[in-house]
Design a protein that fits this description.
about 325 residues, alpha+beta, Nuclear Transport Factor 2, Chain: A, 9 helices, about 35% strand, single chain, 2 domains, six-stranded mixed sheet
Length: about 325
């Protein structure tokens, strides 16, 4: 099993080296070498699902690389594991960090600043043999908009930051990790998921008790732009968990596509994870009465037997677009032709 994970890591690292080193015009051969013909790529609004490496290169990577020149991949977490939700136990490799470049041209209509810009990303890659067959890549477009001086959402309840990696600086698991540590991480993640499924009617005191079962007292919750980051169980309850639970009339858990862990790190993504009906207040938005799908990636760091840090990627542009709010469109932005 360790050899399978290490081989998959090596493949993805080679793919990143080739991808990041190629010019925007020379991405096609990279995709041919590393991406399977029957590929599925899941990305944030306005990209959604793309079904070939060449399409991903043409519609996502080449425009982004032309906009963010001298692009540099700054990884904070790199892990691999078997998908615990897949009977076959397919191997996935996860990379999280920032894509940093000089914002020299528009991307999705976001005006260039000619300054450093950092696009938060997290990517799950499914590896089969010598090819990547599936990808889920979430990226924080509202965060990039805010760096360019745009304000896509009302003031958020948490802090707006360029988010750091793990406090322990050990998230790049390039070498094999102890499988027992990965099992401990999965146990902590699964216990937290089981707790939050029973969310209705929980009082603030009950919420604090719930969180204390899964989280360290000094937990860090690194949320997406529009919600923000928050620190300690108390402030997380006040600044995100409480408002989030109060802002929706209904909540349906749809499950995850992939859930894995390696060492002290783990995470999951769904497509979608949740279906929610806004009842008013969340992110300053009114009630709509419309169920909407929320696509989420969560990455965790475990400390002892509890979770200590959580990096969250939510496709908020897609969620609010389902509610009738086209955030890119109302700001005169959108995909290039």
């Amino acid at each position: 099993m360790s050899n399978d994970l290490q081989g998959a890591k090596s493949l993805v690292r080679a793919y990143y080296a080739a991808l990041d080193g190629a010019s925007p015009e020379a991405l096609g051969p990279v995709m041919t070498q590393y991406i399977a013909p029957d590929y599925l790529w899941r990305g944030c609004h306005p990209f959604h699902e793309l079904t070939s490496g060449q399409e991903v290169a043409a519609r996502f990577w080449a425009p982004l690389r032309r906009a963010l020149t001298a692009l540099q991949r700054r990884q904070d977490i790199f892990i691999a594991g078997r998908n615990t939700l897949d009977a076959a136990g397919a191997v996935w490799v996860v990379s999280m960090g920032h894509l940093m470049g000089l914002h020299d041209a528009p991307w999705l209509g976001i005006p260039p600043t000619r300054k450093i810009a950092m696009l938060r990303y997290c990517e799950f890659n499914k590896v089969e043999g010598d090819r990547i067959t599936e990808t889920a890549m979430f990226f924080d477009i509202p965060h990039l908009m805010m760096q360019a001086g745009l304000n896509p959402f009302p003031p958020q309840t948490g802090a707006h930051l360029v988010q750091p990696g793990p406090m322990t600086h050990d998230g790049l698991c390039l070498d094999p990790q102890d499988p027992a540590e990965g099992e401990k991480t999965l146990t902590a993640i699964n216990a937290m998921i089981a707790d939050i499924r029973d969310w209705k009617g929980r009082t603030p005191a009950g919420l604090s008790e719930e969180l204390a079962r899964s989280w360290t007292d000094d937990m860090l919750w690194w949320g997406p732009a529009g919600i923000g980051a928050t620190y300690t169980i108390e402030r997380y309850g006040q600044q995100h968990a409480g408002p989030f639970r109060a802002g929706f009339a209904d909540r349906l858990f749809n499950g995850h596509v992939c859930r894995l862990a390696e060492g002290h790190y783990g995470g999951f993504f769904g497509w979608p994870n949740l279906t929610l009906t806004p009842s008013g207040g969340f992110m300053g938005m009114p009630a709509t009465g419309k169920p909407g799908d929320m696509r989420v990636i969560d990455i965790y760091r475990r400390e002892g037997d509890k979770l200590a840090e959580n990096w969250i990627f939510i496709d908020l542009l897609h969620f609010w677009n389902q509610q009738g709010l086209d955030v890119l469109g109302r700001m005169g932005l959108g995909p290039e032709d």
